[in-house]
UniProtKB/TrEMBL annotation:
<dbReference type="InterPro" id="IPR011990">
    <property type="entry name" value="TPR-like_helical_dom_sf"/>
</dbReference>
<dbReference type="InterPro" id="IPR019734">
    <property type="entry name" value="TPR_rpt"/>
</dbReference>
<protein>
    <submittedName>
        <fullName>Uncharacterized protein</fullName>
    </submittedName>
</protein>
<feature type="repeat" description="TPR">
    <location>
        <begin position="222"/>
        <end position="255"/>
    </location>
</feature>
<keyword id="KW-0732">Signal</keyword>
<feature type="signal peptide">
    <location>
        <begin position="1"/>
        <end position="18"/>
    </location>
</feature>
<keyword id="KW-0802">TPR repeat</keyword>
Length: 268
């Protein structure tokens, strides 16, 4: 009965999406252009690293005031500049704030933070490839807070937005990583596990950024190496697992998420 229920549910989702598919804006915002406008503001220099480093410090102190303060600074800057790029980084910060609350056993605030990030991106006009990729990632993360009935709907939204990211920029590594992650974590009985390997191989073949910039996103490649290695470990494809572990640790020698997989490869 459960299988029939979910099959019926998935059919409804596909039907709804066919009837209400959203057109991708031809006026998607160019973040390379926007980054020139914010280049005079030191807050935006290496903003991805600033958010992550602030997150790490909050986890060590078990107080997230620094993340909240950084969000206030971005909010103030957006009031002045009115640019999607600033909203993007606010949504990214909400993601890490959600992780903080989740790690400190506050699921209520964790859900509120991830929902706030999703709302920023959903309400954003003229979304570009990066916006859709981040939206898909946040939606995927939000599934753990939602009821089982909602999960298939969210999963299809994740897939749809990640595909929009790819359509807008076929060289965007994050578009492939998010699609792979969604497939990797989807149970096999619901069609998961069929595309992750191909998508991850594509992701690790791409540069972090098409054009190097301290204002633009670079996340995804380290995570892709980790997931690809885990995929091969799970499949007991040891030569492939060792190859991509070695490639990943060579590219990211200080990576905790990749290095922790070493023990699973000993003697293989």
């Amino acid at each position: 009965m459960k299988n029939l229920f979910f099959i019926g549910l998935l059919f409804i989702i596909y039907a709804c999406q066919a009837n209400t598919s959203q057109a991708i804006s031809a006026e998607a915002q160019d973040y390379e252009v926007q980054s020139q406008s914010v280049s005079s503001d030191s807050l935006m220099v290496n903003i991805q690293k600033k958010i992550y480093d602030t997150f790490v410090s909050t986890m060590m102190s078990q107080k997230n005031q620094a993340l909240l303060d950084l969000n206030k600074e971005l909010t103030t800057l957006h009031k002045e500049k009115k640019q999607n790029l600033i909203l993007y980084w606010q949504a990214y910060l909400h993601y890490y704030n959600s992780i903080y609350y989740l790690k400190t056993q506050d699921k209520g605030n964790a859900e509120k933070q991830i929902d706030a990030g999703i709302e920023l991106l959903e309400d954003m006009e003229n979304k570009n490839s990066e916006d859709y990729a981040l939206l898909a990632m946040l939606q995927s993360f939000s599934m753990q807070f939602k009821s089982g009935v909602k999960a298939p709907f969210i999963s299809k939204n994740v897939e749809s937005n990640a595909q929009k990211a790819e359509k807008l920029d076929a060289a965007n590594i994050r578009a492939y990583y998010v699609q792979a992650s969604n497939d990797y974590y989807t149970p096999a009985q619901y069609g998961g596990g069929q595309k992750a390997e191909k998508l991850l191989l594509k992701a690790v073949s791409l540069p972090e950024q098409s054009i190097k910039s301290p204002y633009l996103p670079s996340w995804g490649k380290e995570e892709a190496y980790e997931m690809l290695t885990k995929l091969y470990i799970k499949a007991e494809k040891w030569e492939e697992a060792k190859k991509y572990y070695q490639d990943g640790i060579a590219a990211y020698p200080n990576s905790y998420v990749i290095s922790q997989l070493a023990t699973k490869l000993v003697g293989k």
